[in-house]
Amino acid sequence: MSEPLLRIEDLCVGYGDFIAVNGASMQVGEGQIVSLIGLNGAGKTTLTSAVMGLQKPFSGKVFFGADDITAMHTDKIVSKGLTLIPQGGRCFNRMSVQDNLLMGSFPRSVRRDARERLERVYELFPVLKEKMRDPAGSLSGGQRQMVAIGRALMARPKCLIFDEISLGLSPAVIKDIYHRIRMINESDKTAIILIEQDTRRALKTSDSFFVMLKGRIVLSGKSAEVDEKTLKEAYFGI
Ligand code: ATP
């Protein structure tokens, strides 16, 4: 694997006394697509929250490039190039599509390029250009996900985390969104982390994978090389 862009080391995160992530380590190389898969409640979202500075870990470290970003403020983490697209791709429903997108260009380093970034987002999602003046709340679920992805792209990320992007979307929309995720990866060399329950699709898209079970990473490897039986056993803990 290339030099890790994101390095998570022995992270423990929880709620009160409850440990939801128990010593998880994972790495993502520059320009790589990695999937993080696991059952409901395995700890994937909690791990991501801690990586993004939304939740303070009990212990462990997170590095982004050469920087220690453990428990750093989220806006600073985003400025460094790590961005999360949360479950449900939340939008500001009353604001126009374009204003939603412009919200993503808050880091000082990217503000000057906002117009150029906007054009890039419209190139990737032409439907958003057509609807740029419409309130985001009037869009379909898939289109709102596109707005959320576009908003994240405005910050010129080096690494994007997608938290269950397929949730609640039709198979055709999921296919389309995955196609665009690959385009983002190929054209901009953006590293991607796919947090998914749709294991098959995640593995098909990613270079490598990590399986999480009860707060631990129980299996990892190259996506193309994993056999179904080993994966199933790790995924369900059987
Ligand atoms: P999902 O696919 O459902 O999002 P997940 O793998 O992301 O699942 P988490 O949401 O991180 O898992 O949850 C990990 C564990 O932490 C679960 O046992 C969950 O019940 C618990 N948990 C999550 N959020 C909280 C919270 N705010 N307070 C207490 N426990 C929580």
Task: Characterise this structure.
With 238 residues, this protein is α/β, with parallel strands linked by helices. It has 10 helices and 10 strands. The model has no long low-confidence stretch (mean pLDDT 92). The strands form 2 sheets. The protein has a 6-stranded mixed β-sheet, with helices on both faces. Strands 2-1-4-5 form a 4-stranded antiparallel β-sheet, covered by helices on one side. The protein has 2 domains: 4-81 and 157-236, P-loop containing nucleotide triphosphate hydrolases (Rossmann fold, 3-Layer(aba) Sandwich); 92-156, no CATH class. Bound molecules: adenosine-5'-triphosphate. Adenosine-5'-triphosphate (ATP) is lined by residues 15, 18, 20, 38, 40-46.
CATH class of the largest domain, anyone? Alpha Beta
Largest beta sheet, briefly? Answer: 6 strands, mixed
Q: How many distinct folded domains?
A: 2
Bound molecules: adenosine-5'-triphosphate
Query: Helix and strand string, N-terminal first?
Result: EEEHEEHEHHHHHEHEHEEH
| CATH homology-level superfamily of the largest domain | P-loop containing nucleotide triphosphate hydrolases
Chain-wise SSE layout:
Layout: E1 4-15, E2 18-29, E3 33-37, H1 44-51, E4 59-64, E5 67-68, H2 74-80, E6 82-85, H3 97-102, H4 108-111, H5 114-124, H6 126-130, H7 141-153, E7 159-163, H8 171-188, E8 191-196, H9 199-205, E9 208-213, E10 216-222, H10 228-236
Parallel strand pairs: 3-8, 3-9, 6-7, 7-8
Antiparallel strand pairs: 1-2, 1-4, 4-5, 9-10
The structure holds adenosine-5'-triphosphate.
